[in-house]
Amino acid sequence: VLQLVESGGGSVQASGSLRLSCTASEYITSSNSVGWFRQAPGKEREGVAVIRGGTQYYADSVKGRFAISQDNAKNTVYLQMNSLKPEDSAMYYCAAGSVSWSGRFDRREYIYWGQGTQVTVSS
Known about the structure:
This protein is mostly beta strands. It is built from no helices and eleven strands. 0% of the residues lie in helices and 50% in strands. The strands form two sheets. Strands 2, 4, 5, 6, 9, 10 and 11 form a seven-stranded mixed β-sheet that branches. It is globular and about 40 Å long. The protein starts with a strand and ends with a strand.
């Protein structure tokens, strides 16, 4: 069973930066997509960045501020978060799966999930 482990969360002031890491227990051969999702208290889990077939996709709310990348040699996917805002505060999750293009931001299409890492941005 594929296991995903996130790291890199923490507390930062607004306009600061963080880099999250998602390390897989094995090479993700059966999954065509790896995504970062986030969930704030009382809100639904939402997709923020996805790599699918080597192409990066971003939610409008993070476009231009976040960057997703992958290092296949390390089985690791990164999320570089710049110009952070208080509304970016949430638990961030890494997920993997064989998803459709239209469902790349749909959490229901992902079958492997990490345990999450907390990001807190203060104003």
